[in-house]
Design brief:
The complex is a heterodimer of chains A (114) and B (193). Chain A has 114 residues and is an all-alpha fold. Chain A is built from 4 helices and no strands. Chain B has 193 residues and is an all-alpha fold. Chain B is built from 9 helices and no strands. The chains are: A mainly alpha (114), B mainly alpha (193). At the A-B interface, helix 1 and helix 2 of A face helix 2, helix 3, helix 6, helix 7 and helix 9 of B.
Chain lengths: 114, 193
């Protein structure tokens, strides 16, 4: 008849587990692996600054594009190119200025990083 | 010269390794190899796999040595890294079924006053531990087999002490039920032979 182990019994059985002695070459094998790890070149870091500058640039360009398109009025079919140029010119200088600023900031960051 | 404690030795070894003396890590390996290999073995019951996992844990600890800030004991930090390593290793590899014979062979160095029947019961309990869900098995192994206290167990697992207590209690309940079922099955087979 097998009885269910009571709590004391269970605690005693759990505490009676033996330790495993590592094999004789274990430590030297670990040190070889550690030495290999030490000899590896440091992992390349993710280029966060470039990533952020790139994302900021994309956001600025997207904003400028939305601004330009939003300000455009539909041109009469007779003179489409002229009306596009006139409407775009009012915001084009803003878009250009924003692009220059973002490129300047990005360039400064990259120079500092290098 | 005053004798140094293992904790002092660990801190000194960490400083030397961080200063570029890779060989100083050898002291850490020698001090902790037994505990890390035994801990791994308690999760897989396979010597080769246990040593592979422990080696991986040491290499990970070496790579992460800069993150050791000394706000907890080195043993706690190292055991936490080992636990994370073993967890991912055991997910990648199929579990090794521990046979009663294998458990019996390892148990030969046990207390001679524990009878054979007791050793077999202990082996059944250990196998039942392996079959526990991860969240119950881990605190049980750390608390009972590695003899860590509640605080250290909670720190290693990154959970509150209350959660450790609750999981230990649930683990003991599950273990008692499952060990009883296994013992009943094993006893029935023994009586047939």
């Amino acid at each position: 008849m097998t009885r269910e182990p009571d709590m004391d019994d269970l605690e005693r059985l759990l505490s009676s587990d033996d330790a495993l002695v590592p094999s004789s070459g274990f430590a030297s094998s670990v040190m070889e692996a550690v030495q290999r790890a030490a000899d590896e070149p440091p992992p390349l870091r993710f280029p966060w600054w470039r990533f952020i500058v790139g994302v900021a640039g994309c956001v600025v360009w997207a904003g400028a594009a939305i601004g330009v398109l939003g300000d455009l009025e539909l041109a009469p079919p007779t003179e489409p190119l002229l009306s596009l140029a006139v409407a775009g010119a009012s915001v084009a200088h803003w878009a250009l200025a924003i692009a220059l600023v973002s490129l300047a900031v990005g360039g400064v960051r990259l120079l500092r990083q290098d | 010269m005053a004798p140094t404690s293992p904790a002092d030795d660990d801190h000194a070894a960490v400083q030397r390794v961080l200063a570029g003396d890779v060989a100083a890590f050898n002291g850490i390996v020698h001090r902790w190899q037994g505990r890390l290999v035994t801990l791994a073995w308690r999760f897989c019951r396979d010597r080769t796999m246990a040593e592979d996992m422990a080696q991986e844990a040491f290499v990970k600890a070496f790579r992460a040595l800069r993150t050791f800030r000394g706000d907890s004991a080195f043993s706690t930090w190292l055991t936490a890294i080992a636990m994370n390593t073993y967890r991912s290793c055991l997910r990648d590899r199929p579990p090794v079924a521990a046979t009663l014979d294998a458990a019996r062979a390892v148990g030969q160095g046990a207390d001679p006053f524990i009878g054979l029947q007791d050793q077999e019961r202990a082996a059944v309990v250990r196998r039942a531990v392996l079959a526990l869900p991860e969240k119950y098995r881990e605190p049980l192994v750390l608390y009972y087999f590695q003899e860590m206290d509640l605080v250290a167990t909670a720190r290693v697992l990154g959970i509150p002490e209350g959660t450790v207590k609750a999981r230990l209690s649930r683990a003991r309940d599950l273990l008692r039920q499952r060990a009883a079922a296994r013992l009943a099955g094993w006893s029935a087979r023994s009586n047939e032979t």
